[in-house]
């Protein structure tokens, strides 16, 4: 029988890859939960994908999306309200009889001294555990696509990546590999109550990121290690809210201290193929950086 899988945050970095990869499989009806209908227009063109509007802060908007959904790939945005949003989603999943939640979480969510971002994810994980709905948590490292989403403008205009990241190495993962794991878990057996730490195949510093972009694109790109105080002032000038400045500085602090370099082989174990390395990522996203 055809099963229905709801993907929340379906226009986001990971969600849209999950929708794309699921839409290529037979026997699955994909329901793409979108916040902005305009951003979701492209998803309508994929086979067997229905698009539904969702506003995570409004429980009334969630019922249609969850009705007859067998499984959910749950993404909530980087927001100080994400725990509250996730609670509403899990409550609705419970009401409508969802049989499995696969949650996009963050590497380090289980650590005792977790940073704020990870503490939010752990709070959501706990809420899911307590709901009684079978679950799988995908705790992902920082995405390679962050360089496309956040660093591309200064790479293009100045050949510079500004970040208060020091020499710390990070096990960046390609969002397409997170999606591939999500597909394996959503369509396979034996993943209930499991937590998977997902990373790329190597840990690299932002200096090495810049060198790789230079090598692959032929355009000189340099890393500028911004002092924390200057990074804070720059974020304030961009009118970022305080919670976001605090969360990002904490994240960079962790990277600088060398605490983001864990490498696992979960992607290969779960998908049967090696995760993309940063060089492959840049080759395939080259046009974002030149
Ligand atoms: N970036 C990283 O390196 C990293 C690493 C590990 C874990 N994570 C976690 O991954 C999650 C973010 O995933 P992502 O980067 O794939 O997402 P993303 O690209 O930031 O996209 C977020 C998605 O959520 C939707 N959304 C935002 N507010 C909404 C609302 N109020 N109601 C309904 N939908 C809403 C957005 O739609 P609109 O655009 O239309 O608003 C978008 O589709 C966060 O929980 C983050 O902590 C991120």
Characteristics of this structure?
290 residues, alpha/beta, Rossmann fold, UDP-galactose 4-epimerase, domain 1, 2 domains, seven-stranded parallel β-sheet, 9 strands, 43% helix, binds NADP nicotinamide-adenine-dinucleotide phosphate
Helix content: 40-55%
Percent strand: 15-25%
Gross morphology: globular
Give me the Rg, rounded. 19 Å
List segments where confidence is low: pLDDT < 50 over at least 5 consecutive residues: none
Instruction: List the bound ligands.
Output: NADP nicotinamide-adenine-dinucleotide phosphate
Number of helices: 12
Number of domains: 2
Structural class: alpha/beta
The CATH superfamily label of the largest domain reads NAD(P)-binding Rossmann-like Domain
H and E order:
EHEHEHEHEHEHEHEHEHHHH
Q: Please tally the β strands and state the result.
A: 9
Any idea of the CATH topology of the largest domain?
Rossmann fold
**What does the main sheet amount to?**
7 strands, parallel
Distance between the termini: 47 Å
Average of per-residue pLDDT values: 97
Your description of this structure?
- Helix 1 (15-23) crosses helix 7, helix 4 packs parallel to helix 5 (116-131) and helix 8 packs across helix 12.
- The longest helix has 16 residues, at 116-131.
- This protein starts with a strand and ends in a 6-residue tail after the last helix.
- The radius of gyration is 19 Å and the shape is globular.
- It has a seven-stranded parallel beta sheet with strand order 3-2-1-4-5-6-8, sandwiched between helices. A two-stranded parallel ribbon has the order 7-9.
- It is built from twelve helices and nine strands.
- It has two domains: 3-140, NAD(P)-binding Rossmann-like Domain (Rossmann fold), CATH 3.40.50; 143-172 and 200-261 and 276-290, UDP-galactose 4-epimerase, domain 1 (Alpha-Beta Complex).
- It has 290 residues and is of the alpha/beta class.
- NADP nicotinamide-adenine-dinucleotide phosphate is lined by residues 9-15, 35-36, 39, 54-57, 75-78, 82, 104, 106, 117, 140, 142-143, 146.
């Amino acid at each position: 029988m055809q099963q229905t899988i709801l993907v929340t945050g379906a226009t986001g970095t990971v969600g849209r890859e999950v929708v794309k990869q699921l839409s290529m499989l037979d026997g699955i009806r994909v329901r793409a939960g979108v916040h902005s209908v305009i951003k979701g227009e492209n998803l309508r063109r994929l086979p067997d994908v229905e698009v539904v509007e969702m506003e995570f802060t409004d429980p009334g908007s969630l019922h249609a999306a969850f009705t007859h959904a067998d499984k959910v790939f749950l993404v909530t945005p980087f927001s100080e309200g994400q725990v509250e949003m996730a609670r509403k989603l899990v409550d609705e999943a419970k009401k409508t009889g969802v049989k499995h939640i696969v949650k996009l979480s963050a590497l380090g969510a289980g650590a005792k001294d977790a940073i704020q971002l990870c503490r939010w994810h752990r709070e959501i994980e706990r809420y899911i555990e307590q709901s009684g709905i079978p679950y799988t948590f995908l705790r992902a490292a920082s995405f390679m696509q962050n360089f496309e989403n956040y660093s591309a403008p200064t790479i293009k205009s100045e050949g510079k990546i500004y970040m208060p990241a020091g020499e710390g190495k990070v096990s960046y993962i390609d969002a397409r590999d997170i999606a591939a794991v999500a597909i394996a878990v959503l369509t396979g057996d034996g993943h209930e109550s499991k937590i998977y730490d997902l990373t790329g195949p190597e840990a690299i510093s932002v200096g090495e990121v810049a060198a790789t972009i230079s090598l692959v694109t032929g355009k000189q790109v340099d890393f500028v290690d911004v002092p924390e105080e200057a990074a804070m002032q720059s974020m304030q000038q961009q009118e970022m809210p305080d919670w976001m400045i605090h969360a990002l500085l904490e994240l960079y602090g962790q990277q600088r201290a060398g605490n983001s370099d864990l490498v696992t082989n979960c992607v290969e174990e779960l998908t049967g193929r090696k995760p993309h390395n940063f060089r492959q990522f840049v080759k395939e996203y080259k046009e974002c950086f030149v």
